[in-house]
């Protein structure tokens, strides 16, 4: 099973089975995207395989189409 490391390289001592995310939670970003503010939180999940080591290069498989080099990190 995949195990994630913290930013200092230490192995996290709990297994990750999924990542629960909250979307549409930044008022400025909602406005910037021209979207309506939802009445309820927007939740979505990502599999454990969506996690990557921040010290390693991000590799996208060939054939995935157009990709941008502009990234937005939010925690």
Provide an overview of this structure.
- It is a single chain.
- The protein is mostly beta strands and 75 residues long.
- It has 1 helix and 2 strands.
- The protein has one helix at residues 27-32; strands at 18-23, 42-47.
- The chain has a two-stranded antiparallel sheet.
- The longest helix is centred in the middle third of the chain and has 6 residues, at 27-32.
- The protein is extended.
- The two termini are 24 Å apart.
Large-scale geometry: extended
Low-confidence stretches: none
The strand line-up of the biggest sheet is 1-2
Number of helices: 1
Strand content: 15-25%
Distance between the termini: 24 Å
Mean pLDDT: 78
Biggest sheet, in brief? Answer: 2 strands, antiparallel
The succession of helices and strands, N to C, reads EHE
Helix content: under 10%
Overall strand count: 2
Using only C-alpha atoms, the radius of gyration works out to 16 Å
Structural class: mainly beta
Brief rundown of the structure:
GO terms for molecular function: acetylpyruvate hydrolase activity; metal ion binding. The chain has 1 helix and 2 strands; from the N terminus they run βαβ. With 75 residues, the protein is mainly beta.
From the structure above, extract its key features.
single chain; 75 residues; mainly beta; two-stranded antiparallel sheet; 1 helix; 16% strand; extended
List the helices and strands and how they pair.
Elements: E1 18-23, H1 27-32, E2 42-47
Antiparallel strand pairs: 1-2
Protein name: 2-keto-4-pentenoate hydratase/2-oxohepta-3-ene-1,7-dioic acid hydratase (Catechol pathway)
GO molecular function, one term: acetylpyruvate hydrolase activity
Keywords: Metal-binding
